[in-house]
UniProtKB/TrEMBL annotation:
Designated name of the protein: Cation efflux protein cytoplasmic domain-containing protein
Native source species: Hymenobacter cellulosilyticus
Entry's Gene Ontology molecular function annotations: zinc ion transmembrane transporter activity
Alphabetized UniProt keyword annotations: Ion transport, Transport, Zinc, Zinc transport
Domain Cation efflux protein cytoplasmic: 2-71
Coiled coil: none
Source lineage: Bacteria, Pseudomonadati, Bacteroidota, Cytophagia, Cytophagales
GO CC list: plasma membrane
Source species, domain of life: Bacteria
Protein's UniProt keywords contain Ion transport: yes
Any one Pfam family match given in the protein's UniProt record, by short name: ZT_dimer
Length: 97
């Protein structure tokens, strides 16, 4: 799993990987889900995902992958659902996100 995490972190623009899960679907098929953080200005998401899928098959024999791209304004641990200002506001008001 660490080899896959290292591989994902080495991809263009990736600054963080979390919620990484890899598991067998059968004796020959493997699945992956992950959240990757990339810059907000990235306009090449489809190209990035296509290349990533190709590379995961050839490097790790992972044929079924679901990768969620999060913008780099997301706060770590909040899975891209909110930005730093929302977290700060919720924290000071006692609300949960």
């Amino acid at each position: 799993m660490e080899a896959v995490r290292t591989f994902l972190l080495a991809q263009p623009g990736v600054t963080e990987v979390h919620d990484l899960h890899v598991w067998p679907l059968s004796t020959q098929d493997t699945a992956l889900t992950a959240h990757v953080v990339r810059p907000t200005s990235s306009s090449d998401a489809n190209h990035f995902l296509k290349n990533l899928q190709h590379d995961l098959v050839h490097e790790f024999n992972i044929g079924h992958c679901t990768v969620q791209i999060e913008q780099d304004t997301a706060v770590a641990g909040h899975h891209g659902c909110c930005d730093a200002e929302e977290v700060a506001a919720a924290t000071t008001s006692g609300k949960s996100l």
